[in-house]
Write a structure and sequence with these properties.
The protein has four helices and 14 strands. Helices cover 23% and strands 26% of the residues. The mean pLDDT is 95. It has a single domain, classed as Jelly Rolls (Sandwich), CATH 2.60.120. It holds the Pfam family 2OG-FeII_Oxy_3.
Length: 217
Amino acid sequence: MSELPALDRAALGAAVRDRLAAVPGIFHMPAPIDIFLLRNFLSGEECAGLIALIDADRQPSTLFAPDRDPAFRTSESCNLKRSEPLVHAIEQRLSTLTGIDPAYGETVQGQRYAPGQQFKPHHDFFHTDQPYWPHQEKIGGQRTWTAMIFLNQPETGGQTDFPEAGIRVTPRTGNLLAWNNLDALGEPELRTLHQGLPVEAGMKYVITKWFRERPWG
C-alpha cells in the first residue's frame, strides 16, 4: 500500500493544527514548525499510574535503524498495553484532542531516563531511503503527528530540545507536547529534529504516541 498523496497529508496536518489551536489554554509555540504545549493534560494520579506501568515492563530502548553510537539512545522503554484501562482512556483522550481516528495511532510507548541517559537528535518521521521503510509503509505509512506527555519533573536536565526550531521544553508533570512531523506541503519537516537532553539529576518519565497517515498495523 502506498503513502497518501502529500496534499492529503497536508490537509490532515492543517486539520489537526486548527483543532489544537482552538483548545482552551493551549499554547501554539512561536516556531517554524507546528508545535503545541498544553499544561496539566494528565493529573498527578494518572502520571503516577503510568510510571508504575513503565517501571514494571521497561527494557533497553531500541532504534528502527542501528546507530554506531552506543550513546545515541540510552533510555529504557516499553509499549503500554491498550487493555490497561488507564492507557485506553488516555489514548481516547488523545484522539479526541487531535481529532485523529484511534486506528491511526501506534501503541503508546513509555520511556524512563535515569541520570546521564539521553536520546540524541533524531526525527520521528520515517526516512524513506532506509531499509525499515518498506515494512513501515505497509503497516500505516508515514508518521504525521507526535504527542508526548511528561509524567514527572527530574531535578535537573532532561529537556526536549528542537535545535533547528529554536524550542526547548522543560519537563513538567502532566504537560503535553504535540507537533506535526510534516511540513505545510505534507512532506517530512527536517526542522522537527529533536533530542532528549541528558538527565542530570533525578528520573524522567514520558509517554509518546505517534500517529500514522493510514490505519496502523
